[in-house]
Amino acid sequence: MKQTIVIGAGITGLTTALYLRRAGLPVLVLEGAERAGGQIRTLQEEGYTFETGPNTGSISFPEVAELFALLPSGYEAATPAGNCRYIYKKGRLHQLPSGPWSGLTTPLFTLSDKFRLLGEPWRKKGDDPYESVGSLAKRRLGKSFLQYAVDPFVGGIYAGDPMKLETRHALPKLYNLEQEHGSFIRGAMAKAKEPKNDRDRLATKEVYSARHGLETMIHEMVEQIGTEHIRTGATVTSVRQGAAGDWLVTYQQGGELHEVSADHVVSTVGAHALAGFLSETLPDELLSSITSLYYAPIVEVAVGFDRTVSSYRGFGALMPSSEPVDILGVLFPSDCFADRTPTTEGVLYSIFMGGTRRPDLIDMAEKELQALALKDLYKVLDIDPRIVPNMVHISRHRHAIPQYGAESERRCAAIAEVEHRYPGLIIAGNCRDGIGMAHRITQATQVAQQLITDSDQ
């Protein structure tokens, strides 16, 4: 029976392995870290439960709901407070509009751009397939929508610059709305009218976490896969084709080298890590087209208080790059999910910093980072400076979020060429197909389904 080796035990690798195991196929997951889960990790400190990586996901695709249906704990949907989101402008937070009336009255956008929005359905569609997110937003919506909606949104999702992200790859749904319907508004209305089957309706777009944090889902996936099929602390050093056409994977674990063979190898690690084991197999030109993908660094700061310290409640707040703050945004996990604080009176915040705006923060000393994060948190949420937090925890991610920029077409073409030229080798992970957990789960499900289909032939 054909064996598959999966490199990486993040959400992509674990989802792939879970479906292969459920199909009865042999699989071995190799993970360089000492734990499975990748960037998904939940910690408890001083009675607070917080994430050190992604805080939430969205049931954006049926594949996400189908995965959770297999896990004993399922998912925990955000409370209604999660529908309230803020944008920081000129020294205070403003609630992001949720309907036509609030859209007309919000101070976030200029009056001229509000009127401009009325003409969006009749505006000529663009003809540049490489147009940036920022250029597209400014052309169709106006400068203030770019500055106080799209820019902070991109900062919150990609920790990036909307003028440098290519729409077709970074936000393909947005790109397709214009290209297929000529307008964001007309496209959204057409999509809403499309008939949906039972599976389509699984994509509720609910914001989710898991009971006791996202790492719960990781533990349950590992249990279903079986720990005997996952080797942690196993650093892959080489992937090469054998004389018989199979794949030989060399990895180091516990100071010893091991070699295993497989019919398929699925890499789910970041593009920056591929050179560590594919440099002897792939031509330099192909490999460099993939590994040149830039990953923005992120610093995440969890802050806990023993009582309510701000009047703002909701999902969180985003910071436009034009505003004089150093943080990208702040989430309010204790407003959206249960049991995140030691008492019902406590509050928990998750602050995100760095990205392409301040990549230098990844190397800043802990004391200075904490001071910078708390300064902006107190400023944005109008917290009394005399109040001292009960808990502060800093996490650093040097290669956090890939930036799907102008080189995206070349990278995706190189991946397709690799998979065509080297049958059995699959380059998955966040170097293509989207960066969110929903994208990772969907991609992994599709990869696994293709391998299952191939095994039947």
UniProtKB/TrEMBL annotation:
Classification via NCBIfam families: proto_IX_ox
Gene3D superfamilies: FAD/NAD(P)-binding domain, protoporphyrinogen ix oxidase, domain 3, Protoporphyrinogen oxidase, mitochondrial, domain 2
GO cellular component annotations of the record: cytoplasm
Catalyzed reactions: coproporphyrinogen III + 3 O2 = coproporphyrin III + 3 H2O2
Lineage of the species this protein comes from: Bacteria, Pseudomonadati, Bacteroidota, Bacteroidia, Bacteroidales
Pathways involved: Porphyrin-containing compound metabolism; protoheme biosynthesis
Name used for this protein in its record: Coproporphyrinogen III oxidase
Organism: Porphyromonas asaccharolytica (strain ATCC 25260 / DSM 20707 / BCRC 10618 / CCUG 7834 / JCM 6326 / LMG 13178 / VPI 4198 / B440) (Bacteroides asaccharolyticus)
Keywords: Cytoplasm, FAD, Flavoprotein, Heme biosynthesis, Oxidoreductase
Cofactor dependency: FAD
Keyword presence, Nucleus: no
Top-level taxon of the source organism: Bacteria
One GO BP: heme biosynthetic process
Subcellular location: Cytoplasm
Summary of the function given for this chain in its UniProt record: Involved in coproporphyrin-dependent heme b biosynthesis. Catalyzes the oxidation of coproporphyrinogen III to coproporphyrin III.
GO molecular function: oxygen-dependent protoporphyrinogen oxidase activity
EC number of the protein: 1.3.3.15
EC category name: oxidoreductase
Residue span, Amine oxidase domain: 11-433
UniProt similarity note: Belongs to the protoporphyrinogen/coproporphyrinogen oxidase family. Coproporphyrinogen III oxidase subfamily.
